[in-house]
């Protein structure tokens, strides 16, 4: 049973594209922008859209759209999103937005 659980965890990590520290679980609550501020940052080119950030980071999961935030984390702007893997498990990850 433990072996199957370990395999499930490994498969989920791989499916989410958690590699090289690019995608890390969201930990600290940063100061997050409101929708207007987010749109201004995207329009000005200061940050990339969530889909581009996911592609750059290798995240292979479905975005759970109601849980997207753009926050100041670790000295930079980060997308904080929930993604669902092929097994239906969700996980909050942070993605570089710049």
Task: Explain what the structure shows.
By secondary structure, the chain is an alpha+beta fold. It has one domain (2-96). It is 33% helix and 28% strand. The chain contains 3 helices and 6 strands, in the order αββααββββ. The protein has helices spanning 2-15, 35-44, 50-57; strands at 24-25, 31-32, 62-63, 69-73, 76-84, 90-96. Strands 1, 2, 3, 4, 5 and 6 form a 6-stranded antiparallel beta sheet that branches. The chain is globular and about 35 Å long. Residues 1-28 have low confidence and may be disordered.
Strand and helix layout:
Layout: H1 2-15, E1 24-25, E2 31-32, H2 35-44, H3 50-57, E3 62-63, E4 69-73, E5 76-84, E6 90-96
């Amino acid at each position: 049973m433990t072996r199957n659980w370990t395999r499930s965890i490994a498969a989920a990590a791989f499916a989410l594209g958690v590699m090289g520290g690019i995608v890390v679980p969201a930990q600290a609550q940063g100061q997050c922008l409101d929708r207007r501020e987010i749109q201004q940052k995207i329009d000005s080119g200061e940050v990339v859209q969530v889909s581009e950030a996911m592609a750059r980071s290798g995240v292979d999961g479905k975005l759970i759209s109601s849980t997207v935030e753009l926050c100041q984390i670790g000295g930079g702007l980060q997308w904080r999103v929930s993604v669902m893997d092929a097994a239906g498990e969700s996980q909050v990850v942070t993605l570089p937005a710049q």
